[in-house]
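Appendix B, record 7
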Amino acid sequence: MKIIVQRVSSAKVSINNETHASIKKGILAYVCFEIDDKDEVIDKFIHKIGSFSIFRGENDEMSLNLKNVEGELLIISQFTLAAVTEKGNKPSFHRALDSKNANYLYNLLIQRLSDSPIRFQSGVFGADMDIQSINEGPVTFLFEL
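Structure tokens (predicted):
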């Protein structure tokens, strides 16, 4: 699983020119499932995203996490994170999990987040989405779980 995480002041996802979901202060996370991913990666992600120190605390250091700041999470599925770009001028997506299994894991992620204390919103798997965000910092991290 690859995840791009951005600390945001706000973010929203629109589908067909209508706002589908939006958050205020929090984390925008683009998630991609790869061919070897299993259900266990979901719990690793939820633990990491809830406890990772990404927000400013004392002395302007990154010492606070999503729970500490009562922030929100916006989850967006993004299979292009699995792209292999080292050779040639066209990306290869052979590392991406097939759509059926990736959709299953995405829905499992949404279900398990619903059972967690993390406040979240999500995009729609496989939809053509427009994402707007204000990256605070900017702060961006890449996680590979």
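Remarks on this record: The beta strands are 2-15, 18-23, 26-32, 55-56, 62-64, 72-77, 119-122, 129-144. The radius of gyration is 15 Å.
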